[in-house]
User: Fold this.
Amino acid sequence: MKTTENGGSASREPSNGWRTVCKVAISSLVLCLTVLLYLLIDPTVLQAAPPTECKVIAADGLNVRAAPGTTYAKIGRIPKDAKAIPLATISGYQWILVRAGRLEGWSYTNSAWITCNGNIKQLPIKTNPTPIPTPTATPYQVAYTPLPGGGGNDDELVSDGILVDQAMIDDDATFWDQIYFRLIVWSTDANTQQDGDGIQRVRFRIRNDNGDVVYDHTELTAPYCSFGGENGCNILELKSGVLWPPSNTPDIVPISPILNGDYQLRVFVYTDESDDETGSWNSDFSINAPELPGSANATNAFDFFINQIGEEDSGTFVTDALVFEVFASAGEESGADIDWVDFWIYDAEGTQVYHKQSPESTPPYCAFGGNDGCTVYSFAENDYRWPNGASIQSGLYTLIAVAKANNGAVRAGSWQIEIQ
Assistant:
């Protein structure tokens, strides 16, 4: 303490040097506290390195889109436990650009769906990324995997069996969004060892879990694809209302809707040396698409059949009017434990000419509605046009009905008629 001129006392003040030291110490302390607080709020900043690998952990796999956003087209799916290479992200880090095999696109960074071994915030940031064009399936770019099953003929044929795009299927041989099959095969007697050498034709046949043939198709030239295709295999999108494509074999296979459930595929191979089957492969698979009715685990044990076609019981020939009524019941009476029944009509070319606007929820189950009885759709009274305006022509048509029970079981039926 120092004495003032009037005898008072004055406080001792630090010199300029001490003031500087204190300011530095206080600034350092504030900085340390700020960094510590930031780390507590966002500990991911400790992960300085960008990720080099990600793993899909979603049970249903991870969708890949053409650009970051759910409004952009889905261009594929990465199955559960598959690895992907992270390439970039966007501002906000909600989406990352990934590559898995031949598939490259954008996936949502939900921690319950995908996990990465680094900090995605350190990935390059893309601004206004251009949507990636939807890839065209070609036999030379697809990462194929054999479908579980058996068969073949090692003495006369060379093949790895039935192949599928590994991005479309999970470990249980279940398809979710898209489907097709391919067989790469050649004869041991051929001069070269290339796909199709010495092969006369390949036939694909699919049966549902009731044993009914739902699809039958023959390919004459490689690549041998279940749904055709020249430069690459045609892909069937598993969307609401999708049908098995028209078959091209001599056997009559009615057009029918694709339902979730279990199926069996058999592929028959015929060589140039014989018209008889040389070898065949078989495999079981399932469909479990979000947009399709049916349940892979539900029992199909309920009654379902067509009850009436025309105004008068004229068999499969119709001249003046159509009724199209089906019977569905999981009990003693019509409609027992049935949720709904839906109806479609297709012409001989596979073009949809009618689909009921809303399914029938109570019996009688009629394609054109009705309360006490089914509405009779008179051709003359409707100017010989279907409800959608298409002209009613003479020829073959396919009637399709799908019934869903309260327990989730689904049955479908298709019937061919001729309008004269």
Summary: Residues 136 and 205 are 25 Å apart (CA to CA). The chain has four domains: 15-46, 54-122, 144-287, 303-419. The chain is about 5% helix and 40% strand. Residues 1-14, 134-141 have pLDDT under 50 and may be disordered.
